[in-house]
Sequence to fold (160 residues):
Amino acid sequence: MTNYDFREMISTIEHYEKTTAVVDMAIADPEAIDEDTFDCYLDGAHNAQEWLTAAIMDLIKVDEMTALAMVTTKLDEIKALLIRGVKFEKGGTYWTRSPGDANCIFSIDVKDRTDKMLTFVDWDSKTRRAKIKIDESGEYIQPDRYSMAPIYRACRSTVR
Fold:
């Protein structure tokens, strides 16, 4: 699976929604915007549509026609599916910042996963397990239970 930045994906969906709205308005009222502006918005919508189609095909494993149909008709459902597609992968490295010091970055290496549990090597070279939870940003784990405990999210892969 290609590494997609979750924020970039949501931003592209929002860009696609805006550009297609302008294109639809211009089609309904040709006098609303000039031809160059229309072409610019049409190109933006087309580029966003291509990128989103490829991302959906890769993340949720559907064929190109299904992905294209989803992009053109069901953007809210796409957001939900993309979020569910943000998962921890075996062999992946994930990072998070320390809640107390933004310059301190912790990382984990995923050794194995099941639907509910993640086995990983933490920043202290200890092999540990944690329950996988899901929220609006995708999968995450919180290996420890204290006020400043780090939270690792699947959308933060590869140490930066």
